[in-house]
Amino acid sequence: MKLEKAIEILTFWHDNASPTLKGDYKDALNLGIEALKLVKEGREKGTIIPTYLLPGETI
Questions:
Q1: Per-residue pLDDT tens for 4-59?
Q2: What is the secondary structure of 6-24 as a DSSP string?
Q3: Beta carbons of 37 and 7 less than 8 angstroms apart
Q4: How many angstroms separate the CA atoms of 15 and 29, rounded?
Q5: pTM for this model (two decimals)
Q6: CA distances from 4 to 1, 36, 38 (A)
Q7: Region class of 55: left (phi > 0), else alpha (psi between -120 and 50), else beta
Q8: Which end of the chain is less crowded, N or C, counting CB atoms within 10 A of the terminal residue's CB?
């Protein structure tokens, strides 16, 4: 899976989460989204050397 698709899926679940889903669960989704965005941006700008793919990541 490409990073863009993973970000899209996590964002969907975060934005459409049940009102009962709160606290740590929603925070974990947000953390995953932001972490993937940082990796993607770092690779694009060259501040992170893409020597390996994340588990489950494809090109």
A1: 999 999 999 999 888 777 788 889 999 999 999 999 999 999 898 877 899 999 98
A2: HHHHHHHHHHT--TT--TH
A3: yes
A4: 10
A5: 0.84
A6: 8, 8, 12
A7: beta
A8: C
